[in-house]
Amino acid sequence: MNQIKGLHHVTSMAKDAQVNSDFFTKVLGLRRVKKTVNFDAPDVYHLYYGDAAGSPGSVMTYFPFPNMPAGQSGTGEVGITEYAVPTGSLAYWTARLADFGVKSIARTEIFGDARLEFDGPDGERFALVETHAEDARIAWTGANIPQGVGIRGFFGARLRLRDSGPEAELLRFMGYQTSETANGVTRLVMDHGNGANTIDLQSAPSLGMAHHGAGSVHHIAFAVPDRDAQLEVRNALLATGYQVTPVIDRDYFWAIYFRTPGGILFEIATNEPGFDRDEAPDHLGEALKLPTQHEKLRGQLERKLVPIVD
After folding, report:
1. Does some domain include residue 224?
2. CB contact at 8 A, 196 and 153
3. Fewer CB atoms < 10 Å away: N or C end of the chain?
4. CB atoms within 10 A of CB 85
5. pLDDT of 132 over the 80 cut
6. What pLDDT sits at residue 220?
7. What integer best gives the mean pLDDT of the chain?
8. Domain of life here (predicted)?
9. What is the pLDDT of residues 33-86, one digit of tens each?
10. Going by C-beta distance under 8 Å and a sequence separation of 6 or more, which residues neighbour residue 182?
11. Which residues contact 91 (CB under 8 A, 6 or more apart)?
12. Is the confidence at residue 133, as pLDDT, over 80?
């Protein structure tokens, strides 16, 4: 395939909307680009964080289910979500995260990339990766974070699997190329992507399967330019034997889903129409936006959903 251009978004689960919003906007300095609700459970928020426009390859999204039990890490999941930051910025981020009391901060390195790993508020694992190549993406400078050290968007993600072979084969079919292997991790990269171009596969045959809960990644989405490209990808996956959903309208993109050999839920999402389809660019993420089918429930939902204080 040549239609896929890197990551589109990553969607996880949390147990507290306010804590979640504070972490991404006040600690990491990302922009909340949409405040809406879960299509299937409209009494639960769906929050989106990214760069100024919510560009594909920058957006982390969450379903904060109140008081949800913590997930259990293991295989068959996205183990680490990785953000790109400029070279030389990890000292700034080490101090900043420590000042905010972020847990399990650790400097690491793999494939020559300096990394800073840390836990999110629900125990989910993140990494800031210094990018050696020029990254033209512009950081959202929320929370007074200087442009020179701000998060540019995703670097990629690390998938934790019992056997990484079938997942690697799938990703190569999707347009990724194997780059290198070290310490049980195989790196695949997407040439000419959107900047969020890297997937690392970690083989962990001795671990049990992950159990979803707060802090677990629900699915990881890959970007295609438009619906025509998405249809080409869907047809190719179906022809290979994957069970793929019909196209689903998610208001800000169209989506299809399928389960990988390693048990991870993959999504293919369009870059169109974007997060400004129902809000002005200067006011993204401010008002509660509801899917059309749930607009009739606005009064009920506004009474039930705990307001998020910015």
Report:
1. yes
2. yes
3. C
4. 26
5. no
6. 98
7. 97
8. Bacteria
9. 999 999 999 999 999 999 999 999 999 999 999 989 999 999 999 999 999 999
10. 110, 111
11. none
12. no
Q: CA 307 to CA 302: how far, in whole Å?
A: 8
φ, ψ of residue 155 in degrees (nearest 5): -90, -45
Residue 128 lies in domain = 7-304
Does residue 165 form part of some domain? yes
CATH number at residue 267: 3.10.180.10
Whether residue 2 is contained in a domain is answered as no
Residue 111 resides in a domain: yes
CA atoms in the 13 A half-sphere facing the CB of 252: 27
Task: Name residue, tokens 């330019």.
Answer: 225
| Neighbour-count burial of 28, counting CB atoms closer than 10 A to its CB (0-12 exposed, 13-18 middle, 19+ buried) | buried
- The helix/strand/coil state of 39 is coil
The 265-273 sheet, strands edge to edge: 31-37, 45-50, 59-64, 7-14, 217-224, 265-273, 253-259, 248-249
Distances in Å between the Cα of 57 and the Cα atoms of 91, 95, 291 are 24, 26, 23
Percent of the chain with pLDDT over 90: 96
Query: How do residues 268-297 score in pLDDT, each as one tens digit?
Result: 999 999 999 999 999 999 999 999 999 999
| pLDDT confidence bin for 89, thresholds 50/70/90 | very high
Nearest to 24 by CA among 9, 37, 38: 9
The predicted-structure confidence for 219-231, as pLDDT tens digits, reads as follows 999 999 999 999 9
The total domain count for the chain is 1
Instruction: Find tokens 């974007």 and name the residue.
Output: 274
Please report the pLDDT score of residue 135 as a whole number. 86
* 183: amino acid identity, one letter: N
Question: Which amino acid, one-letter code, is at 306?
Answer: V
